[in-house]
Amino acid sequence: MLPYLAYGANMDERHMLERAPHATALGPARLGAFRLEFDVYSTEWEGGAANLEPDPSSHVWGVLWDVPDNELSGLDAFQGHPTYFRREEIIVEVGEQAVTAWTYRVAHQEGYIRPTDRYLSHLYAAIRVQGLPPEAFDIVERAARPPKPTIST
Hints:
This protein has 153 residues and is an alpha+beta fold. It is built from 4 helices and 5 strands; from the N terminus they run βαββαββαα. The protein has helices at residues 13-19, 72-79, 117-130, 134-144, and strands at 4-6, 24-42, 47-66, 86-94, 97-105. Strand 2 and strand 3 form a beta hairpin.
């Protein structure tokens, strides 16, 4: 099976191992041509959760995991695959190497949903512990800010 890219709560080892107890973190990975959005409501976190939207001028950092085939169904069930989140094959950069992986994404979501401080703290802690670059904090912070209203005059 291909490695799995987590870009939200599953970046955290404790969180991930609740879903796939024998998963192994392979390290940071960069996904090009997508941006991070908070446009999915999470009942677990009671607010916005991370999602990916295609954007050729952007990129997202996440954690690559090796998930045993026999634990994939538990992860799928938690993520709501194939009804809610769907598995998609992607290409990520690990150092200088391009690696085929997969991730979960909710397609065609629109509209900002504010993430809770608890969820953001969870993401920031995972970014630190997993050794993602400082830029990963900035990407989450930018996506977590509510859109600014504009008025046409």
